[in-house]
Amino acid sequence: MSSQPDDTSTMPRAARPRGWLRAMIVAPLALIFVAAAFGFVGFLSQLRGVEISPPRNADGIVVLTGGSSRVSDAMELLAAGYGKRLLISGVHPTNDANDISRSLPDSQQLMHCCVDLDRSAVNTRSNAAETRRWVRERGFKSLIVVTSNYHMPRAIVELSHAMPDVTLIPFSVVGDKWRDEPWWTSGGTLRLLLSEYVKYVAAEVRVRLDVVGLDPTSEVVEPRPRQPATAQAN
How many whole angstroms separate alpha carbon 161 and alpha carbon 217? Predict the structure, then answer.
């Protein structure tokens, strides 16, 4: 009685190349996913859930516009004497000191004596460039940085890279929504955090490349030098 050749013996050999190819694709993707997950956890660990007064005073205060109550909180720090002057960076070109004064009626006197407006910055990187100009013009060596808690890690990356010789003291603004509900229960907050995490990683990579002279965006032209707009001549 003759026996038929067993074709199944050839199946592992035929499937082996496809199995190796699948492993070569899946393994790096899994490592990237794990690294991104750990990085996201590390990013979240940097975010403060409550507002804490700065541990000490500084020469100046800078607030990066874009989030609710950032400017009002910065004005409160200025009024409390935490800094000599305040730079509001990223003011809309059509806004002036009077517009801000109307929204903060209790701060009109400070607006006219101790606040500078930067209308050139359009993103966090240009915020850092304009803040560096202001700090150098004023001769400041320390700075309280005011921005939203989720934005603070990226802001510190950009500012510390632009001003390595300036001491930065973070003051994280915590929004009502952040206080009222856990971030993982809100789809909008989760999307915001994921988006900010990607931007933070991109900023970290760009800064590290720039340190070794490999920044692909190093040819980006900074806003032209100019004196910050003030509420009145100083």
Answer: 14
The predicted structure's pLDDT at residue 228: 46
pTM: 0.79
Pair (95, 133) in one structural domain: yes
- Are residues 131 and 36 located together in one domain of the fold? no
Q: Are residues 98 and 141 in the same domain?
A: yes
Q: Is residue 5 part of a domain?
A: no
CA 131 to chain centre: 14
Q: Domain total for the chain?
A: 2
CA distances (Å), 156 to each of 7, 29, 132, 163, 179, in order? 64, 30, 13, 10, 23
Contact in structure between 88 and 65 (CB atoms under 8 Å): yes
Domain assignment of residue 54, yes or no: no
How does pLDDT run across 4-21, given as a tens digit for each residue?
Answer: 555 544 555 555 666 677
Average pLDDT for runs of 10 along the chain of length 234: 51 60 72 82 88 95 89 94 96 77 74 90 95 96 97 97 97 85 85 95 92 65 46 36
pLDDT the model gives residue 224 = 46
Break the chain down into helix, strand, coil percent, rounded to 5: 55, 15, 35
Instruction: Identify the burial level of 58 via C-beta atoms within 10 angstroms of its C-beta, where 0-12 means exposed, 13-18 middle and 19 or more buried.
Output: buried
Q: Do 128 and 215 belong to one domain?
A: yes
Range of the domain at 23: 13-45
